[in-house]
Amino acid sequence: MTGILVQGVSKSFGETRALTDASLAADMGEVHAIVGENGSGKSTLAKIISGVLAPDGGTVDVLGETPGNPCHARRLGVAPIFQEMMLAEQLSIAENVFAGSDGLLCRTLSAKARNAEAKALLERLSGQAVDPTARVSDLPLHLKQWVVLARAICIQPRVLILDESSAALDLAGTERLHAEIRRLRDGGACILIVTHRIAELVRIADKATVLRDGRTVGTLSKFEITEQNLLKLMSAEKPPAKVQLDPSKTARSSSALVLRCEALQLARETTPFGFELREGEIVGVAGLDGAGHAEFIRTVAGIDLPSSGSVTIFGSHGQSIEIRSIEEAGAAGLSYVSGDRKKEGIFPALSTFENFAMAPYGCHRDRTGLIDAGSLRGSFAREVARLGIKVGPPNDRITSLSGGNQQKVLIARAFAAQPKVIVLNDPARGVDIGTKQELYRQLVAFSQTGGAVIYLSSEIEEFFDFADRVDVFVQTTLHRSLPSRDLSEEALLYAMFGRLADAVSPITVEEMA
Amino acid sequence: MAVHETIPGVTRPFPLAWNLEHKGVVFGAAILIALCLAGAVLVPGFLSGSNIRSILLLAAFLGLAAMGQTFVALLGGLDLSIPFVIGSANIGLAALLGAGVPALPAIVLIVLVGAGVGLLNALLSFSLQNQALIVSLGVGFTLVGLSQVLTSIGNAYGGNVMGAVPALLAHISAANGTTFGLPVPPVVLIWVCATIAVSFLMRRSRIGRGFYAVGGNRIAAARLSISAFRYWIYAYCLSGALAATTGILLLGFSGGGFVGVGDSYLFTTIAAVVLGGTSLLGGAGGSTQTVIGVLVLQVLTSLLVGLGFSFAAQQVVFGLMIVPMVAIYARSPEIRLQI
Lengths: 513, 339
Known about the structure:
The structure holds two protein chains of two kinds.
Chain A: E1 2-13, E2 16-27, E3 30-36, H1 42-49, E4 57-62, H2 70-76, E5 78-81, H3 93-97, H4 111-126, H5 141-153, E6 159-163, H6 171-186, E7 190-194, H7 198-204, E8 207-212, E9 215-221, H8 227-234, E10 257-265, E11 273-278, E12 282-287, H9 293-300, E13 308-314, E14 320-322, H10 326-331, E15 334-338, H11 341-344, H12 352-357, H13 373-387, H14 403-416, E16 421-425, H15 433-448, E17 452-456, E18 469-474, E19 477-483, H16 489-496, H17 509-512
Parallel strand pairs in A: 3-7, 3-8, 5-6, 6-7, 12-17, 12-18, 15-16, 16-17
Antiparallel strand pairs in A: 1-2, 1-4, 8-9, 10-11, 10-13, 13-14, 18-19
Helix pairs in contact in A: 4-5, 13-14
Chain B: H1 22-42, H2 49-74, H3 82-98, H4 103-127, H5 132-152, E1 160-161, H6 167-172, H7 186-204, H8 206-216, H9 218-223, H10 228-254, E2 257-258, H11 265-276, H12 287-306, H13 311-330, H14 333-338
Antiparallel strand pairs in B: 1-2
C-alpha cells in the first residue's frame, strides 16, 4: 500500500530554488531515506510532505489526501521531526511530550497518567532514568532530542518523518532509535528519514530516494543502498577523494606553542589535566554525551570559565595572554564556530553578506575608521568561491539558504577574521559528506599556513585522515590522547568508553546497544 | 556605495545594509504619497507652504524622539520613559532658566540628565532580565513625578512653568522660522542632518552594525565579542538624550513649560518605528525607515485635522492603522518562516 506519493514537486524561496522536480514513493511498512547534499532540497521535501510548506507545483499524496497544513497532516497521522528542535523550554518533559494532544478546554489524560506515560516512553527511548516533571530547558541536548522523538512517537504515527534526528545522539542512542524505527515499521508505519549519516542509513533504510539540486536523481532498493552508490548519485562527479595528509605533519613537536591549558578543571571534583596546541596542528576532540568534551571546547573559546586552571594563548612575539572571556579570546586571535547555527551562529533577520561581514568588520576599515565596504565585498567573494558556497543573491536573508550552506557561511566568517586558532564545536552537524570533505580540506590548508585547529565532533568517522591527534574525554576530564597513527574506529570507541585498547574483553557495537 | 562586482552566480551590486529593508521603504513611501494625494484632493490648502511647514515641524519633534526609540527597538527593547523624559526636560529647562541659569549650561545639563535616565533604564532593565517595558515605564513615572515636585517648590503651579525662553531656542523651533534664508524651521534641518548622520553611521561603522547583531541574535553576537550589555547602554542613553532634546526644542516651540507636552509621544514614537518597518523583535529596520513612519503619522494627522476629525476620532484611526501594518509586516514570508 502506498503511503506517500510525491510527483514532480517544485518550490522556491525568493530567488532560491529549493526543489525543481522532486518525486518520491514510499509504501507503508517501509523505512525510506531521503539522501542528498546540502541544499539539495531534502528538508524542504520533508516540510512539504508534512504540510508545513505548500509546493509551487506538482502533486503530494499522503495516505490518500493532500496535506494542506500541519494540523491536517497530524490528523492524517503524520508526525514530523525537523532539524531545529522545537520545544517549549519552560514546560516539563511530560507537558512537551503531550503538547497538542488535548482538546481546547479539556484534558484527555490526567497529569498523573501523562507523567507515568512520558516517563515510561522516555526511559525506553533514552535508556536512562528520567523525571517527567523536569523542565526541558535544564536538559542536556541528547535528552531534548529524545523528548522531541517521544512527542512524535506517542501519537502512534502512521507516517513518521525524521529530519536529521539522530544528530544529537551518540552511538548507543542511535541504536535505540533504530530499534524504535524498526518497531514502528513492523507495526505498518511508514518512516521517512533524512540524514547525512550514510553508515546509519545503509543499516536501516529499505529504500532511498536521492536528491541532487532539488531533483530526484534515483531511487535505490535495499540491496542497492551502499555508500558508493549513494555518493555516485549524490554528487554529479565521482566521489570526492579523501583528504591527503601533508607528510611533514609527523614532526610537530618542534613548532611553536599557540595555546596551553594548565591544571584545567572543568567542574569541581574532576581530575585536572593539561592541553597543548602547536602551530599547524589539528586536534580532534571526542567523547560520549556528557563526557565533558563540549565543556572543554567552550572553556577553550572563553565562553565558560573553568572551575580552576587557566587557558593561555601565545602571541606571535611569544607574549602570553590568559583567556577569561570570549572577547579576550577573539582579541588574541581565536575564532569560534558552533554547530548550533540557529542558537549561536546566524543572525536570521540579516542577509547572507551581512552575516558574513559581522566578524571581519574590524579587518576592513578605511583611513577614517569606517567600514571599507569594497574590501569587505572582495573578501566575501573570495571566501564564497573558496568554500564553494551556494549563495543566492547575497542580499537575501541567510535563512533562505540550506542548513549546510548557512554553516559554510559561518565557517567563512571565522576564516575571514584571520584567526590563529579556530575552535569548531561539532560544525558538521547535519552537513553532507561533500561539504565535510571540503571543510577538512580547508582546515588542512589553514593548518599548513601555521594555523591551529581544535575540532569537536560527535561522529568519530570525521577524524580519520584529517586530525593529527584525537583527545578523548571521559568523566569530564581528558582521558586519552590518540596520535593519528594509532587512530582507528575501534581505538576511539575503546577510549570513549573509558577503556584502554589492550583491555581484556573487546566490546562491540551490539553490546553497546 | 553600490560597487559593481562579479561573483560566480551573482551579478547584482550589493550595498552594505539597505537592501533587505527596500520593500518596507517602498511600501511606506507609497502610503505617504497616497496620503498626500488624498489630502490635496480632500482638504483645501493641504499642500500649501505653511501646512507643509507645520507638518515638517511637528515631524521633526516626533522624528528626534522616534530616532531614540528606533535604537532601542533594534535591540528588541522598548523605551516607555520617552514621554516622561520629554515632559520633565520641558519643565526642567523652563525652571532652570527661570532660576537664572544661563541657557547653554542649562541645555547641556538637561541633555546629560536625559542620557543619565537612559543609563538607569539600561542598567535596571538589563540586570532585571530585560524587563525593559515595565522598568522604563517605572523610571519615567518616577522622573516625571520628581520633576514636578522639584519645579513646584516655591510656587503653586506644579507641572506648568512659565518664563522667558531664549530667543535662539524660540527661533529654532518656530513654525515660521527660517534657516539660512530658506523657509524651513531650523529644527527640521537638525532632524534631517541627524537622520542622515545616524543612517550613515549605522551602515558604515562597526558599532552601528553591532546593533543589528545584538538585536538579531544575542548569543551569536556574544560569540563574535559583541557585548549585548554595552549596546543596551548605548541605545537607552541615546534614547534618553534624544527625548530630552525633544523636550528642550518643544519648550522653544510652546514658549512655556508644560509637563504633559510629551504625553502623545508614548504611542507615536512606537507607532512610527513600527510603521517604518523596524521589527519590535529587534535586528531589522533602522532610523531611515522610521523617518517614513514619522512622516506617515504627521501627514495623516494633518489630513484628519483638515477633515475635521476630533482628537478622539484621530486616536481611533491611529489605533486601527497599527493593526493592519503589523499584520502586513509579520506576514511577509521571511519573518513568518522565522517565527
